[in-house]
Structures
1.
Amino acid sequence: MYILDFYCPAERLAVEIDGDSHTTEEARQHDVERDATMTQLCIHTLRITNYEVETDIEAVLTKISAYFN
């Protein structure tokens, strides 16, 4: 079981906000496995860093909106 940061079922889009805890090799491997599972479920995972959210929220919103039909 995985807990997603944000999920839009209409677009089958998961948005993950990644902080420093995602920089270890173990965390990166976990993220790869999670992304593979999401792909098998036809869910696209968009990864955004905390830094991006904190420094350029407009760019983050643009990146997210690009996935909507």
2.
Amino acid sequence: MSTNWRDRITENAVELFSHAPDPLENTFAYPRDPGLFGPESITWLVMSDVASFIGGIRALVVQAAHPEVAAGVSDHSSYEQDPLGRLSRTASYVTATAYGSMAEVNQAIRAVRFAHRPVSGISHRGKEYSADKSDLAAWVHNALIDSFLTSYRVYGSRPMTEEEADAYVLEQTRLGSLLGAEPLPSTAKSLSSWLTIHPSVDSSPAGSEARKFLARPPLPFFVLVAYKILFYAAVATVPRELRKAVGVRSIPGSRIGGHLLIRVLRFALGFSPAWGAALDRCEEPRPVKDRIRDTSGATR
């Protein structure tokens, strides 16, 4: 595989996430600040791997299984008009809260809570919703955490033990608490169960709209081909109850396709440059065995 081919993949990936300011632009102003999790956390391990691409897609699918959450997105989000902008802003939030100093974590949380203040209304089934409500915040947060964890366990760079999975979920309750989310399951099994058997899960017009968009977003042809492999790799890990609510089916062979593409992306992209920046800020050595590529595609 040529260097130029790898660089083209890097350029395409960077382009998708370059529609919002760099959340760690000033991170070196906070030397030795480990942020919310730190170098020894499972969070830094999980988020360093390209399997997080699948995790992000999976989270959006799972979130659409809650009619009131889906209605809030449909009524107040610009994702159809500005999909890459919303993708970049979401990625910036995830990056800042995972790898940022505490100042950057708090700034990201303040921005999210400010953006959520006007998000309220009534869903198709006549239920009021508000993004400030702790239970709806919990659905969004828990879906995201379960999705990153599941995607890493299925497609990640190495096997993960049950103890590590539980440690990751427990770490993420710190973030959930700062967001005002409640309840926050503290083990991998309880988190998955909470989402799967949640009494609010149901189909909805807004959830169906989200699913249609997620299945075929407006992307350039070759990027769309890769995206659809990742999309169905994500869907393959979603519990049947949630897939049914969203109206999406798992396609045979999608996990195999996901594994193959993730291996290619991991080879081309290396590990997260945000992870590298966070390690440098904390004055921690970068693992020699792990390549971390900057946004120009150069291995560091």
3.
Amino acid sequence: MKDNKSLTNIYGPKSSSDSSFGARARFLQSWYRKSVLLQDNFGPGPDRESKTNYGNILVSGEITGSNFLNDDIFEYAKYRLRFLKSGETIKDYRLFNNMLSSQPMCFNLFFPLKRLFEHDHGKAGQILRNCFPELKIENILAVEIEYLPYPPKEYLDDLTAFDAMVIYKNSSEEMNILAIETKYVEKLGENPSSRLSPQINLVNEGIIFNELGRGEALKGFGQLGRNFLLAEKFRIYNRLDKAFAVVISPKDNDSSDKEIKDFHSLMNPEFTDRLFYTSLESMTESIRNDARGSLRKWIDDFNVRYLGFDKCELIYNEYKKI
């Protein structure tokens, strides 16, 4: 077994800010860089100007595309950066080099589904229907990633965006939106918007929130509430039938499920099904059950990359003693 210094040189230092799950995930990404990508060097993080090099930070990912599972996803990421709309907040260093970030994870998870939708509506509908059975998806109409609705002033006027978004028809012929928030190790942000008026008006004019929720809107919702309200505003503006929102994260990042349950206390009971949680593990398992050929390879690669903790468990047990 390698000594402590060798392990740190190979996999990078620990971060004192990591949760127990965050530490495991950081090591998995560091192991993946070294053992799967075969890259010895690692860079500063989480930002380009940071002073500490971490094992989960790639070097020159904007050239190698190593933060993505295949070249198609990498090309789409470059396309999005090249044609950013005003107000979009996709940061190049994070997207191309930070292996721990949920943003490239979202690209890795949803771009292959977006590409499948563009070539085979039926298969894409089947996969997403099985991922989210409660929605009774029949036909997919659109799949978008890192989507900022335009014009922002017609929505929440604070540049809140969807990590991913699906427009679909269900078995009752309703046309609905599913707003998707992906988290890997992060918690949902608690920072309220500086533009509260659109949110307050939306809450007060609707019937989704109870008195407790109306009072909370005056203080400003955090990320979870803003994402849900953006979906509801998108529904109204685009004359859809219903708005749903889901948070997807690994089951061991259990903060998301708890925050959703807390948020349900602000809603009238008949609307709590509009906001729900799905574990990353259950979603990838569902996709794998339907996947064949290149789709099977993609989802297997995704599982190794983000959930393959068993692949490096022995060495992590030594590393965490440092």
